[in-house]
């Protein structure tokens, strides 16, 4: 659903996902190419009508939050990116990601080892050979 949004709606939604909760003014201030305050409020209202955004009263006006869980959205977006740019290969995507960043901390390296070991074990359970 997210990829079918018009560009500005998607940009506002992705900004809100990064912020986790924000007023229209907060969203506006974070946009790379700011819109008017009324335009941001209009886009947030459209996203709310599509059940992508929830709003609640706050001290500085309404506070908006993404309605779907950001982790679920991230997983779907990552899957689409891997399918599109890495021919569905998680290994190729992981290699590219690791090549982009700084050195891994020992905790990050250990977390990756655990995930790789788990993937090997889980894969062996479904392997008929």
Automatic annotation (TrEMBL):
InterPro entries in alphabetical order: BlaI_family (IPR005650), WH-like_DNA-bd_sf (IPR036388), WH_DNA-bd_sf (IPR036390)
GO BP field: negative regulation of DNA-templated transcription
What's one GO MF term for it? DNA binding
ATP-binding in keyword set = no
Q: Which Pfam families match?
A: Penicillinase_R
UniProt keywords (A-Z) are: DNA-binding, Transcription, Transcription regulation
* Similarity field: Belongs to the BlaI transcriptional regulatory family.
Q: What's the protein name?
A: Transcriptional repressor, BlaI/MecI family
Name its species: Brevundimonas abyssalis TAR-001
């Amino acid at each position: 659903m997210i990829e079918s949004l018009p560009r500005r709606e998607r940009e506002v939604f992705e900004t809100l996902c990064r912020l986790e909760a924000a007023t229209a003014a907060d969203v506006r201030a974070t946009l790379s190419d700011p819109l008017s305050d009324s335009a941001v409020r209009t886009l947030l209202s459209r996203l709310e009508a599509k059940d992508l955004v929830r709003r609640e009263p706050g001290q500085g006006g309404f506070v908006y939050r993404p309605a779907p869980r950001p982790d679920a959205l991230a997983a779907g977006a990552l899957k689409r990116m891997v399918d599109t740019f890495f021919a569905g290969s998680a290994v190729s995507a992981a290699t590219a990601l690791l090549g982009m960043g700084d050195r891994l901390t020992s905790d990050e390296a250990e977390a990756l080892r655990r995930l790789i070991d788990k993937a090997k074990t889980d894969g062996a359970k479904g392997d008929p050979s």
